[in-house]
Fold this sequence. Notes:
By secondary structure, this protein is α/β, with parallel strands linked by helices. It has 2 domains: 6-138 and 270-306, Periplasmic binding protein-like II (D-Maltodextrin-Binding Protein, domain 2); 141-267 and 334-359, D-Maltodextrin-Binding Protein, domain 2 (3-Layer(aba) Sandwich), CATH 3.40.190. It has helices at residues 13-25, 47-65, 76-89, 101-106, 120-125, 159-163, 180-191, 204-214, 225-233, 244-252, 280-292, 297-304, 311-315, 319-322, 340-345, 347-359, and strands spanning 39-44, 68-73, 96-99, 131-132, 135-148, 172-175, 218-222, 239-243, 257-273, 307-308. The strands form 2 sheets. Strands 3, 4, 5, 6, 7, 8, 9 and 10 form an 8-stranded mixed β-sheet that branches. It has a two-stranded parallel sheet with strand order 1-2. A hairpin with a 2-residue loop joins strand 4 (131-132) and strand 5 (135-148). Helix 2 (47-65) crosses helix 11.
Amino acid sequence: MRLNSLLTLDRKPFLAAAVAAATSMCVLAPAAAGDLEPEVVYATTGGLMEDSLTEHFYLPFEKEMGSEVVPVAIEVPDQWARVEAMSRTGQMEFDIVTATPPDLITHAERLMTLDCAKLTAVVENGVDGACDAKGVMRTVGGMLIAYNNEAFKKAPSGWDDFWNVEEFPGPRGLPDTGDRDWWVPLVALLADGVAADDLFPMDLDRAYAKLDEIRPHIAVWWKSGNQLQQIMRTNEVAMTMAYSGRLVAVIDEDFPWSADWTDAVRDVGYMAVTKDAPNPNAALAFLNFYYSNSDGHPDFIRTVKYGTGSAKAAEMMTAAERAGIATSAENFGKLVIADYQWIGDNRDMLRKRWNDWLTQ
Length: 360
């Protein structure tokens, strides 16, 4: 039975208590097919992502391992609210949740600590860092520079060129959505000459002084991925910070845009297992299967327009396709990895500083 609503789930409360001790110490390894629970409940954002995961991973997992993946369509903030509520009552219903890097820190106490060495397929097939103590990479993208090929005589290279409106004239775009409260100040510091290894702790006075320079040239503060794609299609901007997957979608529509991956901010969607997961064996087996099922990754990437944590996936794709994949050998080393502990510890301050600056 494949369910689409959390309200239809019927979990027995004793399951959470029965596995809590084992999962909290992470003594579990991916079990053999015959030892799995009959299902694993995965909270995802639904839509295209869920459909693609179902085709390329959920159904093959069920066929090979005999355990059904039950997707629950829920937005990430609502997901965490439910996790908190279910943790308090001791009746956890989610096995796998969707997480951003800061989520792995903010909600660490609600998540199982993984023994990455036991997730053998992740170790063997994953990119560097594919397995974190609190989650496994599902999708990987970058917040990068997107530029219109017809707007400039040469290609920009790095965030200093984004700020260089004399050599690269034209309207700019920046996000006012997602993690913009640290994405945008971070790239401002890069544009001001701060090395990637020296970004944290962030010098916000320096970052916002640099942002004051570019602000008159920002034509659009985009608020969604759909809006981002639209301003590229209609040439409202000549250059913009962009989700890599949204840029790939525009390029696939034959619009004259390209990517500059120089110091792109790594953007990861993780799969994490809840500490009190009712089906922990099946959950861990799915994480491992996601990486062992290498053949499922290329078409999944082509559909969702984002890379995965599989190092093998990019090798199975064309050179043109690899150009748009964060985890390709050509791009992965260019990504900037943020200090998520610092971001998590300073999140309220970062949001306030951003809102105060944007509204002044």
